[in-house]
Design brief:
Blueprint (H helix, E strand, L loop, with lengths): L1 E5 L3 H10 L3 E5 L11 H15 L6 E10 L6 E2 L2 H7 L2 H8 L6 E11 L4 E12 L14 E3 L2 E2 L5 H7 L1 H16 L1
Parallel strand pairs: 1-2, 1-3
Antiparallel strand pairs: 3-4, 3-5, 5-6, 6-7, 7-8
Family: Belongs to the HAM1 NTPase family.
GO molecular function, one term: nucleoside triphosphate diphosphatase activity
GO cellular component, one term: cytoplasm
Length: 180
Amino acid sequence: MSLLFVTTNAGKVREARDYLDAAVEQFDYDYAEIQSDDLAAIAARGAHEAHEAAGGGDPVIVDDSGLFVGGLGGFPGPYSSYVEDTLGIERVWELVRSLDDRAAAFRSVVAYADGETVETFTGEVSGRIVAPRGAGGFGFDPIFEHEGETFAEMGTEAKNAVSHRGRALASLAEWLAERE
């Protein structure tokens, strides 16, 4: 089986190949992202649209992820990319630093679409928001600490071993194996 991963991020494609027993190819398509508080709804709609745009052949997968901060009522959640672009991680840290509840979670939903079905698979990793540390990763990685290290301090392999996207991809892999 071959899967098209709708992303411009080659690192996400490499991560997917580590989890899936399928040929995973990058599909650069800019689907219309709906505005919703529900990652699954965003990813499912994107996967459906991308499958049609790809010609309806190979199944596609779409990933939508977000950082959910407990003390901010789950914000920024699905709006994480926008918040990172407009506020930056340092200002998010400033918003959170004085809160009693700095617990956070990265969540990812991977949606699979093959023309007959759209299925979603969720992964989550818990941690807390800390002052920026580390030079690796991207996005909110420098302020998200999991078991004593920020994602920016972890190497790619260590981060992928615990990542929210990896957990969602592992669930997808189990589901695909059951369908064979």
